[in-house]
Specification:
Helix 2 runs antiparallel to helix 3, helix 3 packs antiparallel against helix 9 and helix 12 crosses helix 13. The protein is built from 15 helices and 20 strands. Strand 19, helix 15 and strand 20 form a beta-alpha-beta unit. The relative contact order is 0.09. Among the domains are: about 140 residues, PAS domain (Beta-Lactamase, 2-Layer Sandwich); about 150 residues, Alpha-Beta Plaits, CATH 3.30.70.270. By secondary structure, the protein is of the alpha+beta class. This is diguanylate cyclase. Its cofactor is Mg(2+). Keywords: Membrane, Transmembrane, Transmembrane helix.
């Protein structure tokens, strides 16, 4: 039996429109910067005019001043880009950390680290067999799938759960189509992030993964039960992903940790180089071997160019002149380094002395202006493409939310709330068009005995089998919903009494005659069906009350019955 719903409730109307999520435009912070940069270019053109007028007598001072301004612009540009990149890096890091914290309060994970963990008995399972043992547990597999979905949606390498002993009891599948549970059953007691999470509630560490040997940032958050740590949720962010999208640019970007080691680089060959900065001490050999998986320490070939004025702040990277900026990530022991090659500026300076100053300066301005226009155009195209992808992602997310809210996960039929909403719509349509409407309510007889005799998974299979019979016996425009544990309801628009009874009896006969093969056993069951017609009723409550009485009468008459009630 079911309770009469409120057709105007929030549940029945909230997800009626799958496009209800509003798409907000993203702010564009680049336009102002580009305008400022173009005004500086106009100033450079003015200097070129003055250069021609002043003549060779002022060439040295003007060319040197021009080079200094170009380097200043380059430094300003690299500073702004470093700030922007640091914000992106901080956002990705914060997202991974906040996700770990949020998941540590998620009810399903709390349950896994509490009751489920106590029932796993991992201490009785050999270490080499723990991964295989965990994959046989349905709750673990369900949690693995949930964590995989979260990792894929947020572009994380992995999300996993550790028990209080540091053993991984649930994890997401590895990315890139590798259907493998990399760290399941592994123990991470020695990891700094696990120890910090147990002691202080959260922890963070860079390390090369143990099961999947890739440089990663690990963020851990403790789960609590009764004020005691019951487990730790860990999110793993691929450190290479922080600079992956910058590899095709002329600039060079590094991300270093508190030990001065490069943990992400737009030039992969420089990964795990040591950044000697302000007397930074190199990591100890044990840390180098176990955290960074490196046998020897390699310095990043970065030195200050001592042959140029100190105020220009020119550095050399592998004999290439660069301007350099570094930005610390707030509240993190991580620093973003961003370098822009400026050899072209020095080459141009040399050409100024070999060619006519006016021609060289004009050509340089045209090259720089064209380069900046192309760069602006590419950024604009990339921004529009990103907005388009975001819109599509939001639309897809909205559709998924609508499906989740309206579809019963076990039977793929309409949920109770969505069925009542659709039934109410059909009632209003039938009243407006003065057409007929029939309603069937089905209940599997003695369903508790099935669960007791064959187990709850078998009971779920029976419910799914009943749903399949309902789909096969009704018309394409009929609506079917699962309104209770073993209860179903079917709305039949434009259906007479005789047609409704015929459909109900077909359902009853198929249910009684078609047994369900479950494993090596055959489960036979019957159903009772109540039938009624709209007959001028103008609200869903009256209709449901009548069909409920009809089902009750069918049950009372001995089950495996169809009963019609006016």
């Amino acid at each position: 039996m079911f309770m009469t719903p409120d057709p105007n409730s929030t549940f029945t109307t909230k997800f009626s429109d799958p496009t209800a999520i509003a798409l907000q435009p993203l702010p564009d912070h680049q336009e102002t910067r580009l305008k400022a940069f173009r005004s500086l270019q106009a100033g450079a053109v003015g200097f070129a005019v003055l250069w021609v007028i002043a003549g060779l007598s002022a060439s040295y001072s003007l060319l040197t001043g021009n080079l200094g301004e170009e380097l200043t612009r380059a430094q300003t540009k690299v500073d702004l880009e470093a700030q922007f990149i640091s914000q992106i890096v901080a956002k990705e890091i914060n997202t991974a950390e906040h996700l770990a914290s949020a998941l540590s309060h998620e009810e399903r994970i709390l349950s896994s680290t509490g009751e489920m963990d106590s029932n796993l008995h991992l201490d009785k399972v050999p270490v080499s067999e723990r991964s295989a043992h965990l994959t046989t547990i349905p709750e673990v597999n369900g949690l693995n799938n949930m964590l995989t979905s979260i990792a894929q949606d947020l572009d994380l390498m992995a999300v996993f759960v550790l028990n209080t002993e540091g053993t991984c009891i649930a994890t997401s599948y590895l990315p890139n189509g590798v259907n493998t549970l990399g760290c399941l059953g592994q123990n991470y007691t020695s990891r700094h992030y696990f120890q910090r999470a147990k002691e202080y509630g959260r922890g963070m560490q860079f390390a090369v993964g143990r099961a999947v040997k890739q440089p990663s940032l690990f963020f851990a958050a403790a789960c609590y039960a009764d004020n005691h740590v019951s487990g730790v949720v860990v999110t793993r962010l691929d450190a290479r992903h922080l600079t992956e999208n910058l590899r095709n640019l002329a600039t060079i970007t590094w991300v270093s940790d508190s030990a001065g080691m490069v943990i992400s680089s737009s030039r992969p060959v420089q990964l795990f180089n040591f950044m000697r900065w302000e007397n930074q001490k190199p990591p100890e050999t044990w840390v180098l071997n176990n955290v960074y998986a490196q046998e020897t320490l390699t310095d990043l070939p970065l030195t200050r160019n001592k042959h140029l004025p100190a105020e220009w702040n020119i550095w050399q990277l592998e004999n290439q002149n660069i301007v350099l900026a570094n930005v610390p990530i707030e509240n993190r022991q991580i620093r973003v380094w961003h370098a822009l090659p400026v050899d072209e500026l020095f080459h141009n300076q040399k050409r100024y002395w070999a060619f006519a100053l006016t021609v060289i300066l004009l050509g340089l301005m045209l090259i720089l202006f064209g380069e900046r226009m192309i760069d602006f155009h590419q950024r604009r195209v990339a921004g529009l493409a990103a907005l388009s992808r975001l819109n599509k992602s939001l639309e897809e997310a909205s559709r998924k939310l609508f499906t989740i809210a309206t579809t019963d996960h076990l039977t793929q039929l309409a949920t109770r709330g969505y069925f009542f909403q659709r039934l109410n719509e059909e009632i209003n349509r039938a009243l407006n068009e003065q057409s007929s409407l029939a309603l069937l309510e089905l209940d599997i007889d003695n369903f508790k005995n099935i669960n007791d005799s064959f187990g709850h998974p078998a009971g779920d299979a029976v419910i799914q089998h009943m749903a399949a019979i309902c789909r096969e016996c009704v018309r394409s425009n009929d609506i079917i919903g699962r309104i209770g544990g073993e209860e179903f309801a079917i709305g039949l628009p434009n259906c007479t009494k005789s047609a409704a009874l015929e459909i109900a009896n077909t359902l009853r006969r198929r249910c009684a005659n078609e047994g369900l093969t479950y494993g090596s056993k055959t489960i036979r069951f019957t159903c009772s069906i109540g039938v009624t017609l709209l007959n001028g009723r103008d609200n869903i409550q009256d209709l449901l009350g009548v069909v409920d009485k009809a089902l009750y009468a069918a049950k009372k008459a001995g089950r495996n019955r169809v009963h019609f009630h006016e």
